[in-house]
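User: I'm new to structure prediction. If I give you an amino acid sequence, what do you actually give back? Let's try with this one:
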Amino acid sequence: MNICSEMSPYLFDLPQNLIAQKPPTIRGASRLMLLDRRVIVNARHRFEELPELLPPGGLLVFNDVRVVPARLLGRRMITGGRVEALILAPPPLDIPPGDCDLWCLVHPGRRIKPGVELTFSRGDSSTTLTAEILESDPAGRRLIRFHFTASPAEVLNDIGHIPLPFYIKRSDSDEDYERYQTVYGVTPGAVAAPTAGLHFTNLMLERLELKGFKTTQVTLKVSAGTFAPLTKEQLTIGRLHSEYIRVSEDAVRAVRVAKAEGRSVIAVGTTSARSLEWAAETGSIISREGWSDLFIRPGYKFKVIDGLVTNFHLPASSLLMLAAALTGRKRLLAAYTEAIAAGFRFYSYGDAMLII
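Assistant: Good question. You get back a string of structure tokens that encode the predicted 3D arrangement of the chain. For your 356 residues, that looks like this:
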């Protein structure tokens, strides 16, 4: 397989001014492109029109995860040099105080060797978190032993920062603590938001219910790997970074009933799509919990989902490839070209697309 030839068809030029740096002033006040695979022409709408655009009576599947303030700012104890750590897989937040070893991305990485001691704090808090570097791996990650004097939930909520994606060129703000979360998220553990869900308001969920749509939830704890460039190994073996997924019996039952009644299953976000398809790897959907490295790209045959609510994704990313597996690469990239020309906002805080 020629790796370069596989990735290059998924590249596109995006003007920097179309990368959304902030959420819309009002949640849900986004644009929506409708890509209906039954017709040639895409349609432009407002997200508030979603209930009228979805297949009647469909089942919407949401990822109920919440983002943990897992970005820590601190200093080296001896030199006082600044350091930043992003916890890649936050610990269960209900565990008691004590030592906890966690893999992190660290900046500046080259200077942070095993044995270095760190201290993390935040200007508006009296809480201090101390830590030490235990080891590094070939991928540049650091295993850090944190000394939690209170529960991780309490400490991270007190001094942690929202881990905004690298393409948002600003520090996190108080607004991000609300807007980089979905209104329905209840399961902590993600370091990136399931961004398609950021458009939904409680009012929208009520409107969907009144119009006869059903909903259910899955859990995928989104990791920082969702933003990482695809590697040659991933493209060769056809597997991604691992992320924790839980698909409950209730979710399975809702999907089976929808399928039996001929109603569409619409995944809200690529994370919900991956969760459902992973639960159906053996052919029919089953309740399942564990770590998944499922890589969905063109050629994949979907077993569960019939449609997708999603955002506009990074070039040559696994998220873009998943959407292309549903629409076809040429159709999706043509829609992206149209979106760019029309000034749609891209990425986490950007506009939305509905694929049916």
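You can read the tokens as a compact description of the fold. Here is one thing that stands out. The mean pLDDT is 94.
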